[in-house]
Amino acid sequence: MKKILYTLLLLNFFFSAHAQKTNSYTKSINDWHKARIADLKTPIGWLNLEGLFWLHKGTNTLGKKEGSDCRYDNAAFPAVLGSFIYEGDSVLWMNSANTAIKVNGVLVNGINPVKVFSKEEQAITMSWSHYTWTIIKREDKVGVRFRNLEAKTLTGFKGIERFKIDSNWRFKATMVAPSQNVLMITNVLGQTTPTKTAGKLLFNINNKEYSLDVIDEGGPKLFIVFADETAGKTTYGAGRFIEIPKPDALGNTEIDFNIAYNPPCAFTAFATCPLPPAQNRLKIAIPAGEKNYGNH
């Protein structure tokens, strides 16, 4: 009887410890997802984008007026708010008469041009009412990323559907040295850019080895653009993103597909997302992480 009681206590301890570990893991993934949603909703998140206007050399008008170079068709917006002047490697902003915007939070009056983008000055935010915009550069293209902080895509956001959290989609992995120092990444604009690679990640699923080329963006984690056989079905057709811990001195790390997430292009047509390179298109379905969102 004592032996049976001891065995039952031991089993109870084992299952209790396993349940606690499972609950802790599930909570960690849910906490990650909550932070992810909060990030999407910020003023610099992806849910409030309502425009991406590519500039031509010279003067580019911004307004709702038909024929504007950067036309934002919204009744609440001025016919012509002002103009971007794209010269050389710089962009200047010039108010229209009787209008004024803020540049980095400081009100700019008058019609004297103000520099808002150059090689030395980037990430400058302009705003008027509840609209904000910045200048972005993609290879040889310079454009305006335009946001409405009261966009319906933001106020009507209901969350992202996910696969059920399953720790079986978390794998130990090994990073091996890359065959070359750069990875060629093509974006949705068709531009191909050499990108610094951290190496090739190797991992096993059902005793079969898979690999993914990894990007080093200089942050605390490494970045992967990948697709699998759920793409275009239950997940975003152009692939998903995932971040992994940097490997230890022996190259050991892990990949957890429960935190695979949609690229910005799943939420908006006004993003310039990277696409998975051919070698990162896995010949297996990965039913883990975020499911598809919207119709972009």
Description:
The model has no long low-confidence stretch (mean pLDDT 93). The protein folds into two domains: 28-42 and 158-280, no CATH class; 49-150, Tumour Suppressor Smad4 (Sandwich), CATH 2.60.200. The chain has two helices and 18 strands. The strands form four sheets. The protein has a six-stranded antiparallel beta sheet with strand order 1-11-10-9-6-7, with no helix packed on it. By secondary structure, it is an alpha+beta fold. It has helices at residues 2-40, 152-155; strands at residues 49-54, 58-63, 70-71, 82-87, 90-95, 101-103, 106-108, 114-117, 125-128, 131-138, 141-148, 170-176, 182-186, 192-205, 208-215, 221-226, 240-245, 252-256.
What's the SSE blueprint?
Layout: H1 2-40, E1 49-54, E2 58-63, E3 70-71, E4 82-87, E5 90-95, E6 101-103, E7 106-108, E8 114-117, E9 125-128, E10 131-138, E11 141-148, H2 152-155, E12 170-176, E13 182-186, E14 192-205, E15 208-215, E16 221-226, E17 240-245, E18 252-256
Parallel strand pairs: 2-3
Antiparallel strand pairs: 1-11, 2-4, 4-5, 5-8, 6-7, 6-9, 9-10, 10-11, 12-14, 12-18, 13-14, 14-15, 16-17
Total count of strands? 18
* Structural shape: elongated
Structural class: alpha+beta
Order of helices and strands: HEEEEEEEEEEEHEEEEEEE
* Number of separate structural domains: 2
Strand content: 35-45%
Helix content: 10-25%
Count of helical regions: 2
Distance between the termini: 65 Å
Q: How are the strands of the biggest sheet laid out side by side?
A: 1-11-10-9-6-7
Task: Name the average pLDDT.
Answer: 93
Largest sheet: 6 strands, antiparallel
List the uncertain runs.
none
Radius of gyration: 24 Å
